[in-house]
């Protein structure tokens, strides 16, 4: 078999091994691949920076274990940024798994950065997604009444950082981290009537949902999947999971492209040879 | 019914229309009329022309190959519960099981929904009785595997490998597991015919299956295979319905263009707003 | 012995570690299919199907039957017992003689599915029809918009032309729109393929990270 | 009967269970006997009528104009109940699926067919997961919650995520095999996939990062080209395919509703 024929028939097991190798390498060793921060991510970053001091941010969690690889790094990058700039925030989950994951993430980062639950951040717990719209309708008028108790079962009215947080005007930013079509609901019920700034952190496949609102100014910024999280980490000067994973994303895509090119080189050359002979 | 499936990207946005307005009522009445009119004229014996659909011709070829090789076939009716795509899949299943019963070729039908499983079992029993060989029907070949998306996929992968399947049919609603099934089918050397109304999954079937039925060829399948006058008439009626949609859109494009050039004509050309949701 | 087991189960650190080891072995067992079918994969497959079915039974009770059925009956709405009677009709498929009773419930379900299609059709398509009314030219439009709209219209019409089944495309000129349609389709499918790769790779990266980080404790 | 009159809200759960069972037997036998009265030649007609009536509920509710004040018409209340009832009835069918699994794996065990130990693993996993679910739900404690989390995270979630991630491997082998420039169609598919793939990852943005961020040049940045492909030609093609599929589904619904789909599912006489 000639080289060109071999290029056409690489055993699939070899390609799988190569794939594992190119993914594992950037995860184990630091591989500094260039990261270009897109304007959408920059917009999200600036929106967090400009939350007024007397207002809190809300991070809405819609994701579960299925999209943890994309949505958890986004959530963690946002949480880290808010802790870094002393912005107070509340997490609100609409998925039972996301509820637990987001609490664990925030609690870990809080401990790492020396922050205190109830003073610097709060977790509002889980609401079934069926209550999504009713909650969004109630929230603007009476935040504490709509939320009731937090993740740990404490009434939010008794939580120090929730003092004075009563109406939608006391919320300075909403970040939606999601794998589903939920952005429209936030736009319809919150951004539309009250103009509360929104940022959107969807999975990569859901990103097309966000371009129109971004263009129309309905959202301040957007973190597209793992890549968006990596760009955000870049802005925070950190190299957490997303940065390494973004390296792995690049290397795995390069592998696919290289394999396609190799297959085609083999195909063209062997065809040419067949024509000559 | 069955829960959300991980599918990757969602289609364009869906606006849940609560009740029909007059435009919708008239539009749907026109479409329904066109389809029913063609069905009844076909039933009266009008000859109808249908173009060739190569993927569907391949079904008989695949059945023939499995029969020659004396190896079983596999039919997967997709992941969804009882809905229109699944009904169409079951209609195709009926055609294939009838052929299987005729040639005494074994066909395995793993399902992902209890109700679909029930109907599939009924269809298979029926097909074997109709061919006069009810004793050849093996109830263990129509199986409920799992209503978990990826548990189902793991089970089908196992069956494809262990049973040495010669022909693999995938018709119905498939999501992210489409490529798992089709690529495994390819690896075990089965001849594969696939069709799905899930647009995101069509590219994966095209790359991994031998024949892919694209778009609404899926809904044309039962007419094409059975040559039942009712179904053929319906297929022609669908063409007329699509032509009606094209006419409406062409008129809309012309009107929108005229309005863009002469905004003053709005008073005469405001029919567009009837369709505004 | 039993007490020891209970004290282990009460310790979330121990159960968490066991969970990680279970997950790690399961992950490797499933990946072993990539080499070839083998007994380890087969075992993982059966455990997975079993656990998923058990989980399904529990979830069906917790998310559907309890809130929508049991709680209603015990709340005084006795007529929900009839749902059980109706549901039992499925089970007649196993009887030759009374099999026809199951057809009644199939018929009812098919009717419900088809009756809701009108609503589904309108919800999905009306917006899209309206959004397709794009002007091809206007004084206020930039070159980009004009080109984009023209491309939109050509693509829409040629692809729809490809899906006509009953018109004969005898002459080459008549065939042209539908063959352009087919090319456009292939281009679009390529784009869908390409746009899915990143999401799928993210999942795989997540899985490999789990093995390296959570289980093997490298790559921290 | 029992649940309506004899057992009142507040009664213990086991009493309710008995009552439901009793009522089920009474109503079930009544319906069964009633159905025996239907003459054989009318059975098919009965099924056709029930299909049609069931279809009427949703379609009439959709087409009858709603009261502008409440947004509801005379059927809206009913369809909410029907939706719940459909879910409940559908849920009862799960037993058939479980029966199918038990029959298959039970026979494997009983006949000691090859792979019978896998079937026993199936049963163990089934009962362990199901019981852990009910245990943590009905008797919440640290122990039950830990056990449930351990089994759910360690088996159901982990194996699901792993099976899902296998798509990542298969995308590589499928792309390598299929994306050859054999024909115009294959080449078009390859080109689009190539551009979009590059446009989505950081490395793609880097390749064309020297192009200006505004003006004509910015149009050729890979991420912008990829975005344009997805949002212009791809969206139009998607919409066109979807129109066809939706019309096909509508026709299918129509035929099913009116029972015109003769011979598509069943042939045997009732």
Question: Any chance you could write out the topology, listing elements then pairs?
Answer:
The complex is a heterotetramer of chains A (277), B (277), C (220) and D (270).
Chain A: H1 3-8, H2 12-28, H3 39-49, E1 56-61, H4 68-84, E2 89-93, H5 96-112, E3 121-126, H6 132-138, H7 143-147, E4 171-178, H8 183-194, E5 198-202, H9 208-215, E6 221-222, H10 225-235, H11 241-276
Helix pairs in contact in A: 2-11, 4-5, 4-10, 10-11
Chain C: H1 2-10, H2 12-31, H3 39-74, H4 81-88, H5 99-115, H6 117-131, H7 143-162, H8 172-215
Helix pairs in contact in C: 2-3, 2-8, 7-8
Chain D: H1 2-6, H2 13-36, H3 40-63, H4 76-92, H5 94-110, H6 116-138, H7 142-178, H8 184-200, H9 202-207, H10 222-231, H11 233-257
Brief sketch in words of this structure:
The complex is a heterotetramer of chains A (277), B (277), C (220) and D (270). Chain B is an alpha/beta fold.
Structural notes for this entry:
The complex is a heterotetramer of chains A (277), B (277), C (220) and D (270). Chain A is 53% helix and 12% strand. Chain A has helices spanning 3-8, 12-28, 39-49, 68-84, 96-112, 132-138, 143-147, 183-194, 208-215, 225-235, 241-276, and strands at 56-61, 89-93, 121-126, 171-178, 198-202, 221-222. In chain D, 76% of the residues lie in helices and 0% in strands. The longest helix of chain D is centred in the middle third of the chain and has 37 residues, at 142-178. The chains are: A alpha/beta (277), B alpha/beta (277), C mainly alpha (220), D mainly alpha (270). Chains in contact: A-B, A-C, A-D, B-C, B-D, C-D. At the C-D interface, helix 1, helix 2, helix 3, helix 4 and helix 5 of C face helix 2, helix 3, helix 4, helix 5 and helix 6 of D.
Observed structural traits:
heterotetramer, A: 277 residues, alpha/beta, Rossmann fold, 2 domains, six-stranded parallel sheet, 11 helices, 12% strand, elongated, B: 277 residues, 10 helices, 6 strands, disordered N terminus
Count of separate DSSP helical elements of chain D: 11
Count of all domains of chain C: 3
Strand portion of chain D: under 5%
Spatial shape of chain C: extended
Q: In percent, how helical is the residue content of chain C?
A: over 70%
**Range of strand content of chain C:** under 5%
Biggest interface pair, residues each?
A: C-D, 124 and 134 residues
Point out poorly predicted stretches of chain D: none
Element order, helices and strands of chain D? Answer: HHHHHHHHHHH
Output the radius of gyration of chain D: 29 Å
Count, helices of chain C: 8
The major sheet of chain D is characterized as: none
Average pLDDT of chain C: 90
Helix share of residues of chain D?
over 70%
Task: Report the order of strands and helices of chain C.
Answer: HHHHHHHH
Structural class of chain C: mainly alpha
Distance between the termini of chain C: 37 Å
Radius of gyration over C-alpha positions of chain C, nearest whole angstrom: 28 Å
Low-confidence stretches of chain C: none
| Overall pLDDT confidence of chain D | 90
Oligomer: heterotetramer
